[in-house]
Prior knowledge:
Layout lengths: L3 H6 L20 H10 L2 H5 L2 H15 L3 E3 L6 H6 L2 E5 L3 E5 L17 H14 L5 E7 L1 H10 L7 H9 L1 H25 L3 E6 L7 H22 L5 E5 L6 H8 L3 E3 L6 H7 L6 E5 L1 H6 L1 H14 L5 E5 L9 H11 L4
Parallel strand pairs: 1-4, 4-5, 5-6, 6-7, 7-8, 8-9
Antiparallel strand pairs: 2-3
Amino acid sequence: xxxxxxxTLRGHIAERPPVWLMRQAGRYLPEYRALxxxxxxxxxxxxDSAAAAEITLQPVRRFGxxxxxLFSDILIVPHALGQDLQFLAGEGPHLSPRLVDAALASxxxxxxxxxxxxxxxxxxxxxxPGDVTMLGFIGSPWTxxxxxxxxxxxxxxxxxxxxxxxxxxxxxxxxxxxxEASLVYLSGQIAxxxxxxxxxxxxxxxxxxxxxxxxVVAPTARIVxxxxxxHPKVPIIGFPKGAGAKxxxxxxxxxxxxxxxxxxxxxxxVHAHLPPDLPVQGNLDPLLLxxxxxxxxxxxxxxxxxxxxxxxxxxxxxxxxxxxxxANVQRLLEIVRGPR
Length: 340
C-alpha cells in the first residue's frame, strides 16, 4: 500500500499532512556526524552506497518521516558530464574546468558516477518500511548550470547570468547537456526504487522573468514531460526557490505534479493563486526551526491552516540547517501530527 506522502503527491487530502524535511539527512544528526567522522569526506560518502543508504535511513529511524530523501548532491550530474568535482572544507563545492573558460565539448563524460547513487536508492528502498516513500532528486538545469559555468557557488550567479545573455547558444548547449544527463540519472533512480522525485531549482530567483521562462520553465518542462512518459505513476515535485510571483506560471507551464514553496512566499497567497487540487509542499522558514519556541509553533500552525483544504506535504522552505536542535524537530513533528 502506498504511504500518505505518495497519496498526497497524487492529489489526495490526508487526515494529517505527511512530513519530510529537505536535507533531513545531515550534520544536525549526531549519528550522521559519527558516520562521517568514520568514513571521511562528503563525496566519498555519496559514492559509498552502503554508507549513503544508512545516512538516508537515519532521519526516518529517528523521527518517522513519511519520506526518505536520497543522500546525494545535485552536482553528481556535472561530475558525470566530465567536470572534476571537489568539496573543500569551509569552501563548498568546486568544479573544474569552469565552463565560462572552457568548452563543453572539451569534457570527457564519466557516466559511471551515476551507478553508486542508483545502488544507494536500491539499498535504501529495500530497508524502508512499505509506507515510507523513497524520494529521488536532481538539481534543475539552471541551478546546475550556475555551478558548471562559474565552477563554484555565488550570491548572485552573475557569471552564469552574464554568459546566458552574452552567448545564449553556448549556454543553451550546457543546459541541453544537463537535461539529457539528468533524464538518464533520474530515470535510473526511479528504476532503482524512487517512488517520487524532486527537481531542486535553488537559484531560480536570480533570473529576470524572460530568463526564468527560458532557463527554468522550458528545461524543467522537458524533463517533466520525458519522465512522465517513461514513468507515468511517479509524482514529480518542482521546487523553484525564489520564484515569487512567477510560481503560478511555473506550476502551469512545467506540468509538475506538486510545487515546493520557499519560506519567502505567503502561504495564503500561494493557496489562492495555485490550482486548488495541486499538491503544495512547504514552507516553514528553516531558521524558525533553529529558534524554536512560540514563534515556531505559530508559524507551523499558520502553514497547516493555509493549506488545510488542498493536498499538502509539510516541509521547510529550504534545507534544514546543521545547527538545528533535535528537540525543535521533535516539537515540529508534534504540531504537524497533532489534531487538525
